[in-house]
């Protein structure tokens, strides 16, 4: 039986549109990327229910015990099950970084219709495919720090205080088995691609927009973390979801 992901739900007094699903980035959590004061409360004031999801291995959701549990398809299955469990019948989705990558693929596989997407900090290439997971695991268990810069960066994120390093590395390994391919199943719904002006990860969003029949691109101030925290991203997302 599939264990449900943790979902924080905020329901407005009067609902005026589909629920808004908020998907966070790698080595973060729903509460960290989507503070209620900045997201759930303003959306509730506009009549929108919010569903803030903790992805597998993050926040209050179950850990990832193997790479097989962390593949893209398995994560999407768990996400769909979580949305079905709360009774969502139609949704808008806002995703950032890893959350945006999952939101891109969610549209094609979800039995719950997705109306609109806001995708922030999304890279057109698969970053986890180049991670040396074996070296990262060895370092996490007391071995030498990985010589590869990307592997060292991912290990640093996965081993930050409060993180389950082994679980997150299993997720990285699983996601790398089914790399992000934006051409495979591009979402056919209206989508807003948002990238920080100083964020190297999202410099390819114009390329991504080329796969979308209804895609728009917006640059906002900030690097990868700064763009997410900035008022410009939040305001543009809320406006797009109207």
TrEMBL record:
Pfam families: Abhydrolase_1. GO terms for molecular function: hydrolase activity. Residues 18-122 form the AB hydrolase-1 domain. This is Alpha/beta hydrolase family protein. Coiled coil: none annotated. InterPro entries: AB_hydrolase_1, AB_hydrolase_fold, Carboxylesterase_BioH. Keywords: Hydrolase.
